[in-house]
Amino acid sequence: SNPDRVFNFAAGPATLPEAVLKKAQSELFIYKDSGMSVMEMSHRGKEFTHIIQKAENNLRELLSVPENYSVLFLQGGATTQFSAIPLNICTPQDSVDYIVTGSWGDKAAKEAQKYCNVNVIWSGKSEKYTKIPGFGELKQNAGAKYLHICANETIHGVEFKDYPEIENKDGVVVADMSSNFCSKKVDVSKFGIIYAGAQKNVGPSGVTIVIIRKDLIGKAQGMTPVMLDYKIHDDNNSLYNTPPCYGIYTCGLVFEDLLAQGGLGEVEKKNVKKAGILYDAIDGSKGFYRCPVEKSVRSLMNVPFTLEKSELEAEFIKEAAKEKMVQLKGHRSVGGMRASIYNAMPLAGVEKLVAFMKDFQARHG
Ligand code: PLP
């Protein structure tokens, strides 16, 4: 690997596999026999048609996406889906349930309130978003059109390890998987909609992936902007307007890389190992480092931690950066540190961080 590259612990945009970047570099100027870059080609030409179809097929293979689900490559980030979801599957009179386990779930619920009746049936806010509810304690609303969860809270580092079901048999579970998309196996059939911004695990920013059960498509509220209407995008194979071509191409390279690694079962094993090493270092530090999240729901992707001597945090981040480990500062809303260790973070990066943490403790503990 390239010694000039840092270990980038950013939450997103985030580190990408070196093999993917090299492949993109080798094709940057001239893509195959097209005589041009992917950035320059028509989204309706045969090369790009092949690129987007292959990306979709590979994603379908990775996640074993059932036939009765559509895969859409959209724009606007996961944030746009916060409004697209209620607009597409609710009337203004409908009610929906949200479980709020962190800032992203909170944002999603607040946006949905503009378009339907939102019930926040559980919130972890009073416990500083360190928990996931027991599913038995949820009081779902009988008529809820959907139950929304954020599968992995990027800022707070809380991750669902299994998923609640919706009691309303006509309702569906909707999941924001932005920050743990393709990090492990998921039974897609348990969800009505899975959505994710690409810029953590599967590509650059600018691509938003929506996996949606087909029978949910085609019921958008009349006022729904054309760009937010799933039916428009589905009918046009994500080519209604100019898509984020280069981003989709890069996602396609990542999907190939994940398949080459042996698929999401293998990817998950690596993620479990990496996260385990880091949490063990935190828990084994005799309180020098702390992770506030309840152990059973700690994220494999985003590891927030603080220093007992909080006045040393800035020094920790500065020294780490000198050692080529960057973007370890916690989100501005929670402070402390956060190490995002997505699929593309090598084991060596986590090992280096842990060695640094031990050394820092030896010097400052
Ligand atoms: N949901 C989660 C879980 C996220 O981590 C983020 C961004 O970090 C978003 C939603 C918002 O995504 P975007 O910036 O792509 O709109």
TrEMBL record:
Chain ranges of the Aminotransferase class V domain: 6-353
UniProt catalytic activity: 4-(phosphooxy)-L-threonine + 2-oxoglutarate = (R)-3-hydroxy-2-oxo-4-phosphooxybutanoate + L-glutamate; O-phospho-L-serine + 2-oxoglutarate = 3-phosphooxypyruvate + L-glutamate
Signal peptide (from-to): none
UniProt keyword Transferase present: yes
GO molecular function, one term: pyridoxal phosphate binding
One BP term from GO: L-serine biosynthetic process
Taxonomic superkingdom: Eukaryota
GO cellular component terms given for this protein: chloroplast stroma
Pathway involvement of the protein, from the record: Amino-acid biosynthesis; L-serine biosynthesis; L-serine from 3-phospho-D-glycerate: step 2/3
Family the UniProt entry places it in: Belongs to the class-V pyridoxal-phosphate-dependent aminotransferase family. SerC subfamily.
The protein, known as: Phosphoserine aminotransferase
Lineage: Eukaryota, Viridiplantae, Streptophyta, Embryophyta, Tracheophyta
